């Protein structure tokens, strides 16, 4: 293998590493945005659940009871 081939291979590897790092950074940003959306949806779901309760704080008849596994 010539020095030119070795240098070319090293340059290609450096470019691949840079591209991989950029993709990893983009995926990390997407993950953070997704987590923020999930937290917001969780908050909204909790508000909706509270809205389904009657004034006495009991569940409405149409609302399903949460599953509790047997002991």
Describe this structure in words.
By secondary structure, the protein is an all-alpha fold. The chain contains one helix and no strands. It has one helix spanning 3-52. The protein is rod-shaped, with a radius of gyration of 26 Å. The N and C termini lie far apart (68 Å).
SSE layout:
Elements: H1 3-52
For the structure shown, list the relevant keywords.
1 helix; mainly alpha; single chain; 70% helix; rod-shaped
Topology order in helix (H) and strand (E) letters:
H
The span between the termini is: 68 Å
Roughly what percent helix? over 70%
Shape: rod-shaped
Structural class: mainly alpha
Low-confidence stretches: none
Query: What is the β-strand count?
Result: 0
Overall residue-averaged pLDDT value: 87
Quick one: biggest sheet?
none
Strand content: under 5%
The radius of gyration is: 26 Å
Count of helical stretches: 1
Give a brief rundown of this model.
This protein has 1 helix and no strands. The chain has 71 residues and is an all-alpha fold.
């Amino acid at each position: 293998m010539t020095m030119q081939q070795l240098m070319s291979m090293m340059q290609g590897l450096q470019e691949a590493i840079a591209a991989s790092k950029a993709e990893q950074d983009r995926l990390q940003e997407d993950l953070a945005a997704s987590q923020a959306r999930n937290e917001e949806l969780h908050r909204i779901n909790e508000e909706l659940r509270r809205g389904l309760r009657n004034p006495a704080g009991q569940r409405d008849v149409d609302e399903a009871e949460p599953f509790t596994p047997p002991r």
